[in-house]
Amino acid sequence: MIVHGITPILNVSSIRASLEWFEGLGWRRCWTYNDSGMIEGARDENEAGPANFAAVGSGAVEIFLCRDGQGSRGQMPREPGDEQTGGVWLSWWVGSPAEVEAAHARAVERGYVINWPPTDEPWGVRECRIVHPDGHTFRVSAAIRR
What we know:
Blueprint: E1 9-12, H1 15-24, E2 28-34, E3 37-38, E4 45-46, E5 49-50, E6 53-58, E7 61-67, E8 89-93, H2 97-109, E9 113-120, E10 125-131, E11 137-143
Parallel strand pairs: 1-7, 8-11
Antiparallel strand pairs: 2-3, 2-6, 4-5, 6-7, 9-10, 10-11
């Protein structure tokens, strides 16, 4: 078997809030879905009710969002660097350490939870960790050119 792609699915408490959170970091809304099918224009809801499944994208990468299902949620970190938060951890690979800094600055500007500030790690990346309101942790990383 050769896998050609992978799309993580995050259990979220609110599709609308999650879409807004990702959009705040520069991701785009790809599509939304509820029990009546795809929602025109990727809106938060239609006459059949709110979206219960959605996708956000950045470049060629997508993440699916499922309201109240398909996995578990975590909790907010108790202190900076807390790794016992549960939820899903994902690495977002960006092109440069400057992009890590920009993502961090954008998250700080919006009041997002930062679990680890931009740091040059011994494994050769600059990385920060941003935590989604449902406890999912995103490691925003870029290779350090030496």
